[in-house]
User: Which sequence fits this backbone?
């Protein structure tokens, strides 16, 4: 392995995590990393490889946001981030290289401008200073400070209020799947918060809850139970894995993965349901 490749691989995990948090797409993140590698491999004598690679990757990701926005404007139904399998780690043991925001937080980050999101990710998630971020995106530290403040206020007003312990989230997820698979309406109702919201991302290519997010315990429960009774999944299988840092359910028909379910809890009740069924978003799992 040559030196350029070795140095790039030393920083690849960090670069992937930063760019994924900016784009919420595994495929686009890999494309940005390829661009970064091509840029890096043609350079020599870089004094600070880490700073150089992060700058190239962040600016390539910002440039890619334009094409992503066009694609999402034409997207059929609700758009959700592409699920990413992550390690099961205690929060105290997380490092910047493996830090990943939750599905719920990625949805919130979609409401920021591309530059606000880049600043938020670098400052809040990875601990870069305002001065370091200013050098990365070619802005003044004062401008970055203002962007960081605006992004933080925006996110704090919309971020989930409560973070459940992994054991609780696993238990609720198992009960949620069991209630739907068993057609048990009362058991499902007992798990849902009154104002629960469900997002179903099928991208027009797979079954989903509808073209818009659905809100309300009774409405969502009736949709889920009705669908499971009307169109049961042949050879339904369930695997429980950590996706985007949260305990989640992977649903299979035989050996084929067809859905990822991530729940957002408010204490022990389900406040948000994120269901990704678009087959284009499942290969990385």
Assistant:
């Amino acid at each position: 392995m040559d030196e350029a490749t070795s140095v790039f691989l030393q920083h690849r995990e960090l670069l992937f995590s930063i760019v994924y948090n900016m784009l919420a797409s595994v495929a686009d993140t890999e494309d940005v990393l390829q661009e970064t590698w091509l840029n890096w491999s043609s350079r020599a004598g870089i004094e600070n490889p880490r700073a150089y690679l992060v700058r190239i990757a962040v600016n390539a990701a910002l440039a890619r946001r334009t094409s992503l926005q066009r694609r999402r404007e034409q997207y059929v139904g609700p758009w959700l981030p592409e699920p990413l399998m992550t390690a099961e780690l205690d929060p105290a043991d997380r490092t910047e290289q493996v830090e990943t925001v939750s599905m719920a937080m990625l949805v919130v980050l979609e409401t920021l401008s591309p530059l606000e999101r880049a600043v938020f990710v670098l400052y809040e998630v990875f601990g870069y200073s305002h001065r370091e971020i200013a050098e990365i995106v070619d802005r003044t530290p004062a401008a970055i400070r203002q962007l960081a403040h605006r992004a933080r206020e925006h996110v704090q007003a919309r971020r989930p209020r409560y973070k459940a312990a992994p054991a609780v989230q696993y238990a609720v997820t198992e009960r949620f799947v069991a209630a739907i698979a068993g057609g048990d309406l009362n058991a499902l109702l007992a798990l849902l918060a009154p104002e629960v919201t469900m997002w179903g991302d099928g991208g027009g290519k797979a079954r989903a809850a509808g073209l818009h997010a659905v809100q309300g315990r009774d409405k969502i429960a009736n949709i889920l139970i009705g669908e499971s009774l009307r169109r049961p999944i042949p050879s339904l299988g369930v695997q429980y894995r950590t996706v985007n840092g949260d305990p989640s359910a992977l649903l299979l028909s035989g050996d084929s993965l067809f859905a990822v379910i991530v729940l957002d809890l408010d204490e022990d009740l389900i406040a948000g349901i994120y269901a990704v069924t678009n087959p284009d978003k499942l290969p990385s799992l």
